Amino acid sequence: MVIAIIGVLVSLLLPSLSRAKIRARDAQCLSNYKQIGLSFKYFVDERGSFPPNRVRELDPTSQRWIAKSVTATIGGVNPAPFPYNAQYCQDTNRPLFSYQSNPRIFQCPMDKGHRGDIDWPLPINFSVKPSAWEQAGCSYRYNAGLEGPRDPSRSPPLAPLTLLTNSGTIARKPESWVIQPDRYILMHEPPAAPLSKRISLIRGIPFWTQWHRNRGRTDFRDPTIAPTMFVSPILFVDGHAAVHDFSQSVMRDPFYPYEETKDWIWYQPRP
């Protein structure tokens, strides 16, 4: 009887412990974002605008100067060796390098990486596993350009950027450019939006990923079969951070979940 009672108590306690772990990890991300927000503030105050979405760097394989995107590497540490260092820039070349108090503020405790169902043997295509932090040196993404795969259900199948009538991205814009800084997304995690995995120079496959809350499979070619756990901590332009659930937006229109809600704005429409 004593053993049975202990078993009942443990069964009641385990869900509480699980929820406590989730809250602790969310709290760590929010703490990271608040420090990242200060880094952005210092950058904008000194430079007069938000960071660019690309930087020039000497490619380690071709030894040519190329433009590398920093949407996935706005801060943090050096990427893993080839092919990752051919895709992601070095830590000293990342816009927030001089302003980050500690590079580990760019590491999410729930970072599970992301990949599609197909791994193609080309340098332009690789899995960010076991975590984005270990491969790219940064878990969080800078909202300086909406990324996403082409939608085959639309005719013609337009990419998200061609569907938008926007006034450009936040990259290189002054702080005054943002109309609603308390709703405009500045940083987010991959679960908030679709990704595209390139399998050739002209073709990619869409996939959606989950980090927070989900304990099982994390990458999905079809988000409608995924658990409703597209959860992502968010940093807004005004510096506040919050955890939001993007499941409804992602599942309603998987290829184009960027329309504004009462909680967030991805882009500014033209006036």
Walkthrough of the structure:
- This protein is of the alpha+beta class.
- It has one domain.
- It is built from 5 helices and 9 strands, in the order αββααβαββββββα.
- It is globular.
Average per-residue pLDDT, rounded, comes to 85
Order of helices and strands: HEEHHEHEEEEEEH
Helix and strand composition category? alpha+beta
| Major β-sheet strand ordering | 3-4-8-9
Topology, element by element:
Layout: H1 2-47, E1 54-58, E2 65-69, H2 84-87, H3 132-136, E3 141-142, H4 160-163, E4 185-188, E5 195-198, E6 204-209, E7 219-220, E8 231-236, E9 241-245, H5 247-252
Antiparallel strand pairs: 1-2, 3-4, 4-8, 5-6, 6-7, 8-9
Offer a quick outline of the entry.
The protein is of the alpha+beta class.
Tags for this model:
alpha+beta; 24% helix; four-stranded antiparallel β-sheet; three-stranded antiparallel β-sheet; 5 helices; 271 residues; globular
